[in-house]
Amino acid sequence: MQLSLLLLPLFSAAVAEPDPFSFQAPFLRKPFRPAAAHTAATSPKSYDGHVALRVPYTTSEEVAILYNVSSHMNLDIWSKTPAYVDIALRETQLDALYRQIPASLYENARPLVRNLGQSVRRSMPDASNDFLSTLATTTDIHDAFFSDFQTIEAVNALMTLLVAMQPSHTSLVNLGKSFEGRDILGVKIAKPEQKSTKKKSKKQAKRKLVLVTGAQHAREWISVSSVAYLAHALATGNNGDAQIAELTNHFDWVFLPTLNVDGYDYSFQDRLWRKNRQPTSVPFCKGIDLDRNWDFGWDEQQHVLSNPCSENYQGAKAFEAQETKLMSQYMTSLKKEYNVLGFLDLHSYAQTILYPYALSCKLNVRDEETLLELGIGASRAMKHISGETYQTESACNQDGHILAGVNSGAALDWVYHSGVEWSFVIKLRDTGNYGFLVPKEEIVPNGEEMLAFLKYYGEFISTR
């Protein structure tokens, strides 16, 4: 089957690297001078003059102050863990930040990404690796796609191509149109029905299904490539891998690499864009955080996440975002046909495996010990493949202990509360050397780690 695709250029022009600069900040012993310039295609939005900090903390009071100050200054909180908070900001905002937080915080702060502008440029895909441009000549779909991060057009092309290549057990999933009118595509991998002359019983058990999603947050590109990696492996059989055959024998699977299609597309113009692209009550502040817009624990009092200019803006009401509304409707429809028992929501970064609830550590979690056991076992399987360590913990430890409502409206909580027992968030590579800007060389290793996770996960839940 021939697939005709239109190649769209990634960038209109290459932009030269600016001269290196130096700056003095309280967390540095001496001025930092960036390495030699790196010439690459770049997104129009520049992050020159921006840095990312890692701020360790030891008390709940410290982190609450840091979170409140960051929210007041509208800083970009990249990651929050029980040990540290990562924040991106302009160099010119450093003094104002340090004046408002305790000395115990800023004295221990260290640079995570010293030259954010340079790191953004280095993270952008090489146009020569564009999947769409290689389809006519490539003999290896896997290498062509996973050699670099790909546009939304290329991601959708891969989903379509997998179905064209494996029509016996795959089908294209389309949740509908995003706010800006893009198709939200994925692939369903289902065991072919056995031919039988017997009429199906109305009481026949529903087939089990696991749903895997990526890119609720636009800038988390590694989640897109990782979900696509899993979809490719299960659709093609991964070169006759017996464990893959077992996964598709026990369960049907749905892979949705890019839930936030509008935001993901826009992130090729603004690499660190997080939200979708839906208008808000503030004309110059677009976007809703999809992972704060689900109808579980949604902050109806608008105490914490009500600023439309915030990266964590929850929307004016639950399921206001077109993408979360479509996804929740799709989940509801799946349950009429399937026993949906698994949900894996891929994010970055931190290398953590998180189980419910995100909202609060005070909520009762069904079979918490079993979820913890699964997560720890899966992390060992991942480490066996790559040597990388993934920590397993409750999602509430990431944010929910800091400030009430900060983790409201999470997809993990809504799905788990609806009865999907084996629900996890996996935060992928890395632990902070690159943050969201992991290089393309991490795509395949991260995909292999997630495949190891999936094999362990499938075997574990198939026996329960």
From TrEMBL:
| One GO process term, biological-process aspect | proteolysis
Q: Where is the Peptidase M14 domain?
A: 148-461
Tell me the leader sequence span.
Answer: 1-16
Summarizing the function annotation, the protein's role is:
Inactive carboxypeptidase that may play a role in cell wall organization and biogenesis.
* Source species, domain of life: Eukaryota
Q: Name one GO cellular component term.
A: extracellular region
Any Pfam family the entry gives: Peptidase_M14
What is the recorded name of this protein?
A: Inactive metallocarboxypeptidase ECM14
Q: Which SUPFAM superfamilies match?
A: Protease propeptides/inhibitors (SSF54897), Zn-dependent exopeptidases (SSF53187)
Q: Which organism is it from?
A: Protomyces lactucae-debilis
Subcellular localization(s) per the UniProt record: Secreted
Q: Does the keyword Metal-binding apply?
A: yes
Q: Which UniProt keywords apply?
A: Carboxypeptidase, Disulfide bond, Hydrolase, Metal-binding, Metalloprotease, Protease, Secreted, Signal, Zinc
Q: Which family does it belong to?
A: Belongs to the peptidase M14 family.
Necessary cofactors: Zn(2+)
Q: Which one of the record's GO molecular function terms can you name?
A: zinc ion binding
Cross-referenced PANTHER family: INACTIVE METALLOCARBOXYPEPTIDASE ECM14 (PTHR11705:SF147), PROTEASE FAMILY M14 CARBOXYPEPTIDASE A,B (PTHR11705)
Major location category of this protein: secreted
